[in-house]
Amino acid sequence: MERIDTEVAIIGGGIVGGSAALFLRRLGVPVVLLEAALCGAKASGVNYGGVRRQGRGIEQLPLARRAHELWGQLPALIGIDGEYVRSGHLKLATSDADLALLEAYRDNTRGFGMDLEILDRRALAQRFGWLGESVVGGSFCPQDGHANPRLVSPAFGRAAAALGADVREGVRVTSATHDGTRFIVRAGDTLEVRSRYLLNCAGAWAGRFAEGFGEPVPETSIHPLMMVTEPLPLFMNVSLGMQGGGIYARQVARGNCVIGGGRGVSADPDYARPGRANLGALMANAVKLLPVLRGAQVIRFWTGVEGNMPDHNPVLGPSATVPGLFHAFGLSGAGFQIGPAVGEILADLVVHGRSSIPIDAFRIERYAPAAHGAAARPDRLREQTLESP
Amino acid sequence: MSIVMPVIVGAGPAGIRAAQTLAAQGLRPVILDEGLRPGGQIYRQPPPGFSRPKSALYGFEHRKADAVHRTMQELQGNVEYRPGCLVWNAEGKTLDVLRDGVSTAVPYTHLILATGATDRVLPFPGWLTPGVYTLGGSQVALKHQGCAVGSRVAFLGTGPLLYLVAYQYAKAGAQVVAVLDTSRFADRVAALPGMLRAPALLAKGLYYMAWLRAHGVPLRSGARPVAVQGGDRVTGLSYTQNGRTHTLDCDAVGFGLSLRSETQLASLIGCDFEFNERDRNWIPRRDAAGRSSVAGVYVAGDGAGIAGADAAELAGERAALALLEDTGHPHDARRARILDSQLAANSRVRAALERAFPFPEDWASSIADDTVVCRCEEVTAGTIRQAARDNGVQEMNRLKALTRVGMGRCQGRMCGVAGAEVLAHAVGCAPQAVGRLRNQPPVKPIPVSVVCLERPAKKAA
Question: What CATH number labels B363-434?
Answer without folding.
Answer: 1.10.10.1100
